[in-house]
Design brief:
With 354 residues, the protein is α/β, with parallel strands linked by helices. The protein has 16 helices and seven strands. α13 packs across α14. The longest helix has 19 residues. It binds adenosine-5'-triphosphate and magnesium ion.
């Protein structure tokens, strides 16, 4: 499902990290200065770029996008600056580039880090002087374009290593908006899940959204979301779509689309503990000398409890699955639960989720 154009700038989220980002975007939007948006994949960089445009005085003018990744240097040059007929073999007609089309509006350069150095120089010139020539032409074109760029690369590091021009970075980074990863926006996870669930309910023609069970909510909250909001959206939409509508709340969260319905019941078993730890919000344990202040037996006991908790959540409180994740037999896991007085706690959760 494609988001409707009026939804494009709808930004869901109330977490402090996200609200700070929105406020920063609102503040810089009215200016014509370049803005650099940085964030992991799927965190909403394009959404913020769109917002910057529609909240600016340029909102009635064009909002032009170019994804700079995977374009060869010559195609990128033609796309950005246009070319004259006959500029090169195959250039039959004049081509108007994105800078020209974005005149008076905003040009969004996505995946900026991958552009070759010569293009970096040309872009810098447009930012500095507001003018350029089409490829193969000598007419000077003047434009007023606001540039918004996005990347998930570490540009300052690239500038240090000489793979990205430091002066272009300086010019683009009048302000830098750092989009928080979803794992730092815990309080937004269920909000976004509900938002995408409601959209899907409409699309599926369900009479209403029955909600998520507590176990499903826990599963959503405890996942690491490496693909951020895009992944969350897919997971939620898939979870609803794979469920036959009943009045019962959604219980199964379909994180992995590559397995069949039957296998899905064993979904949690497919992940190794290492993968779970990688995906969990924080590493299970990190050690430094301060760890020596706690007796070894106590530390080991704490680690056991943490690992058990992690596995139980990952297994959506199914003890057999959790045992498998911990490479224990069911009875061994029960013994650990008993040792740590957790039988009652997890027993109760299992009843609410199963
Ligand atoms: N705060 C938000 N509220 C609602 N939807 C959001 C929000 N942020 C992002 N999205 C949605 O998540 C998806 C990914 O967002 P977007 O394409 O802007 O991310 P991106 O950072 O540009 O990703 P990539 O690095 O993969 O290009 C889109 O469908 C977008 O509408
Ligand atoms: Mg993007």
């Amino acid at each position: 499902m494609e988001i409707q154009s009026h939804d494009r700038v709808q930004a869901i989220g109330e977490s402090p990290a996200f609200l700070a980002t929105l406020e920063q975007a609102s503040k810089v939007a009215p200016l014509s200065k370049p803005v650099l948006i940085i964030g992991e994949r799927g965190t909403g960089k394009e959404l913020i770029a769109t917002r910057l445009h529609y909240l600016s005085p340029r909102w009635e003018q064009p909002f032009i996008k170019l994804n700079c990744s995977s374009l060869t240097e010559s195609i990128l040059e033609s796309e950005l600056f246009g070319h004259e007929a006959g500029a090169f073999t195959g250039a039959i007609q004049r081509h108007i580039g994105r800078f020209e089309r974005a005149d008076e509006g905003t040009l969004f350069l996505d995946e900026l880090a991958t552009i070759p150095r010569r293009m970096q120089e040309k872009i810098l010139r447009v930012i500095e002087y507001g003018e350029f020539e089409r490829v193969g032409g000598n007419e000077t074109i003047r434009v007023s374009v606001r540039i918004v760029a996005a990347t998930n690369a570490n540009l300052p590091e690239m500038a240090k290593q000489g793979t990205f021009r430091a002066d272009l970075l300086d010019r683009l980074a009048f302000d830098v908006i750092n989009l928080p990863a979803l794992r730092y926006r815990q309080s937004d996870i269920l909000l976004l899940a509900e938002f995408y669930a409601m959209n899907m309910v409409r699309e599926l023609g369900w009479p209403y959204f029955p909600g998520f069970t507590r176990a499903a909510q826990e599963a959503l909250l405890n996942y690491g979301w490496p693909g951020n909001i895009r992944e969350l959206r897919n997971v939620v939409e898939r979870s609803l779509y794979r469920t036959e509508w009943t009045e019962e709340p959604i219980d199964k969260i379909r994180f992995n689309p590559f397995i069949t319905e039957f296998e899905h019941r064993f979904d949690a078993l497919e992940k190794t503990p290492a993968e779970i730890m990688q995906n969990s919000v924080a590493p299970v344990h990190t050690l430094d000398v301060t760890a020596l202040q706690t007796p070894l037996k106590e530390s080991v006991s704490n680690l056991e409890k943490k690992m058990i908790d992690l596995a139980m959540r990952e297994a959506q409180f199914n003890q057999a699955k959790a045992a498998k994740l911990l490479s224990l037999s069911y009875h061994q896991l029960r013994a650990y639960l008993k040792k740590h007085n957790l039988l009652e706690q997890y027993g109760r959760k299992a009843q609410t989720s199963d």
